[in-house]
Design goal:
Blueprint lengths: L6 E12 L8 E7 L5 E5 L2 E3 L13 E13 L7 E9 L5 E10 L25
Antiparallel strand pairs: 1-5, 2-4, 2-6, 3-5, 6-7
Length: 130
């Protein structure tokens, strides 16, 4: 009787920075999503960064350098892990609202990888939110 082969995917890295020209005082929530055959064996499945202010130079970047470290195992590549990033910041009333969200698949090949995540930025339907 043959058993199922298991493989491991280990990811370490960081969410370095973001560019949100219209907003300041932002933080991000990170979490991994994956298929039903996947199991986390080590590391953090989710996290929340510190609040970052825009840099004073012309780039206006928000720097988090938030660490990532997770190991997963699976018997099938179906449902390959994805990192979901949601960025939050205060509205005019001081309530935290989503300023953008995006996702990216974990790298398919070993080695160093650098990626940009396209962020979807919701538009408010209320005149009270900016």
């Amino acid at each position: 009787a043959g058993g199922s082969s298991v493989f491991l995917v280990s990811i370490t890295g960081q969410v370095e920075e973001a560019f949100f020209p219209d907003y300041d005082d932002l933080y991000c929530r990170l979490f991994w999503v994956y298929g039903q055959d996947w199991v986390v064996t080590a590391g953090q499945e989710e996290g929340v960064s510190q609040v970052s202010r825009k840099s004073l130079d012309s780039s206006g970047r928000l720097v988090w350098n938030f660490p990532l470290s997770i190991t997963l195992k699976s018997t099938s590549p179906h449902g390959w892990p994805q990192l979901v990033v949601a960025v939050y910041g205060p509205d005019l009333l001081g309530n935290d609202v989503v300023r953008g969200y995006g996702a990216i698949h974990a790298p398919l090949a070993p080695g160093r990888n650098k990626a940009r995540i396209a962020m979807f930025v919701p538009e408010s339907t209320s005149g009270l939110q900016s």
